[in-house]
Amino acid sequence: MAVTLTESAAERVRQMLAKRGRGVGMRVGVKKSGCAGYSYVVDYADEVGPDDEVFESHGAKVVVSRKDLEFIDGMTLDYVKENLLNEGFQFNNPNVKDSCGCGESFSI
How far apart (Å, rounded) are the C-alpha atoms in residues 75 and 1? Predict the structure, then answer.
């Protein structure tokens, strides 16, 4: 079981944490939402709880609750900068079977 960051995503996580001045990594999870069923939740991870798994890639940590891991196991997060106005995390999740037309939610 693993969630990994590309080098670009890891660099962005390190930058965000440095600017914020605290945190152990990035927390990634899912919530029921949208027309396809689930959407991703991304936040700062200030601590690691007893029900969390921690994955490290390129010097940055991703914290995932065990209950969410089944939905995102094997996922790679990338950080894509297409132009000055369009940048963000891209979720490459091998578990996704379908996604909604707007790209905001997915089903497993």
Answer: 10
Rounded Cα distance, 31 and 5, in Å: 20
Provide the whole-model pTM: 0.85
Predicted confidence (pLDDT) at residue 104 exceeds the cutoff of 90 = no
Those residues with Cβ within 8 angstroms of residue 78's Cβ, 6 or more apart along the chain or in another chain: 5, 6, 8, 9, 89, 90, 92
pLDDT confidence of 37, banded at 50, 70, 90?
Answer: confident
- Asked whether the beta carbons of 92 and 9 are under 8 A apart, the reply is no
CATH number for 4-101 (one of 2.50.20.10, 2.60.300.12, 3.75.10.10, 1.20.1050.10): it is 2.60.300.12
For the record, the structure tokens of 69 come out as: 């891991």
* Per-residue model confidence (pLDDT) at position 36: 58
